[in-house]
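During the reporting period the student researcher (J.K.) took over the structure-prediction task from the postdoctoral fellow and processed the backlog of single-chain submissions. One of the processed entries is reproduced below for the supervisory committee.
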Amino acid sequence: MSIRTLIRGGLVVTAADELHADVLIEDGRVAALAAHGSAAAAAWTADRTIDATGKYVIPGGVDAHTHMELPFGGTSASDTFETGTRAAAWGGTTTIVDFAVQSVGHALREGLDAWYAKADGQCAIDYAFHMILSDVNEHTLKEMDLLVEEGVTSFKLFMAYPGVFHSDDGQILRAMQRASGNGGLIMMHAENGIAIDVLVEQALARGETDPRHHGEVRKVLLEAEATHRAIQLARVAGSPLYVVHVSAEEAVAELAAARDKGLPVFGETCPQYLFLSTDNLAEPDFQGAKYVCSTPLRPREHQAALWRGLRTNDLQVVSTDHCPFCFRGQKELGRGDFSKIPNGLPGVENRMDLLHQAVLDGHISRRRWIEIACATPARMFGLYPQKGTIAPGSDADIVLYDPHAEQVISAETHHMNVDYSAYEGKRITGRVDTVLSRGELVIDQREFTGRAGHGVFIPRSTCQYL
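J.K. obtained the following structure tokens:
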């Protein structure tokens, strides 16, 4: 039995519009919008009416970069698909795109099937997959075509992590050529991993073992160089390119220069690069290990360039790269050797709130908040307008957001399965009140009412910017 739901009296904010409107939901989808107080809206009847007075009514967030249950550095990310998607819902995100991993020597299909099995029946919200390519060869290139047909339309390659995920320039070029033919989007971790490994070895030989040295060896110039190289390889292949977790001014400049030439090159940044810095990596007593991720946190002065890139659309998306490892027992694996600290931060629950705070701080507009967190990731990865907006026919993935509620971010109160918060003690204004996923209440006035297994796999079309 489908429940007809009416959301009354809120300010509907999408990437395109802001209007005081009522939203009618039927069969898990948005049926209609009408101006609040209009004759059309007044005539609507519903089984359930939700009062949104004083709140924003926004599309559910689309986090296009998460790593649930990712094996890394001898351990695994601490959030399962169940705990991670529940935490995402608490933070106003209603769709994640996670990364299935191909292991070297194995088929893409094997890796994808393993991720289907991990997620099936576990997710509180809807999900999709990208595919990590760790072993580019004639067989896996052919498999890329089949995955695109199946709705897995983006492929991540690594210029970092030699011996684990790294692809050389020839492999990258071949994958890009294949994507240019099948419509897939190549996503790139752009850091010169071969050079970084030399600097890591040299730092450890000098006795530089603390977490802050993780940031010092993964140099800004090696991110910029790899970004530049990825762009040129994409040009040669005639392929679009999406650079993940851009952290530094110099890398933004490479993207901006490419976009000024009209090239189909896109960039993503993450909240950690906008709100945290090398000051965190340098925290004493090994606390800096909590902030080890790659690309690494940068000196604070890079933040201005990232915000500017988000305003000028040289960066289009803010995702989390959510990859949590507990401080105790996981991050601690790197005591005495920063290169053994598992790389990743928790953040899937904090993204929408931190970006709302950025609106209040004057970095971005309200509509730009929705654009970079909901609409653009949905378009970039072939989910729009099913996801990322509030429009007739769209999935009723809707968040009632209280722009006046104050909160303090803390591990004591978050729902991610990790023993610390990267934003511990940060005071922000704005909080998720109620979340619907395909018309079903997942969070009802700050109470979790969802369930594992509500979330379904969403096949994606190809990038809608090409």
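The committee noted the following: The longest helix spans residues 220-237.
J.K. will present the remaining backlog at the next meeting.
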